[in-house]
Amino acid sequence: MGRRESKNKNKERNHVMIRDIFSSLSSFIDKCLEVLLVFIAVGLLGLLIFIMVDSVGITPTNTTTTVVEVRQVVPAHTTILLLGETTFPQYHPESYRLYFKIDGEKVFLTVGKKFFADVKVGDMIEVDYGFERLSKLPQPIKIRLVTR
Prior knowledge:
Elements: H1 3-22, H2 28-55, E1 62-67, E2 70-74, E3 77-83, E4 86-92, E5 95-102, E6 105-111, H3 113-118, E7 124-131, E8 138-145
Antiparallel strand pairs: 1-7, 2-5, 3-4, 5-6, 7-8
């Protein structure tokens, strides 16, 4: 049996499996799994659309003065992504976050190393922020240190 014949048989088997799931002769469990897979796919698609619409095009609409509550250095690290049967290393460089409150909501903004070094916990900062379109959560856009 040649390589091409083997591929054709595998394709036939895959099509038979899919036809079996959608046939009227499939079991109740198979149909439940089918419905579950459809709900998961639709749910993930809905979540993706929600996140995209929510975070696209946020423009700064308000400015507030607040206090830096927490400084955090996220060390450089590598995560492993599994795509099919292949793994890919994903490198994340060191990042610097400042946590503060806007309208009672605790938010953070990733800033550059130089700005992070200039700001201490308790320092006053001025933040330009907008609101996400759907969730209406404050989203900081730009940050400045208030002169001491």
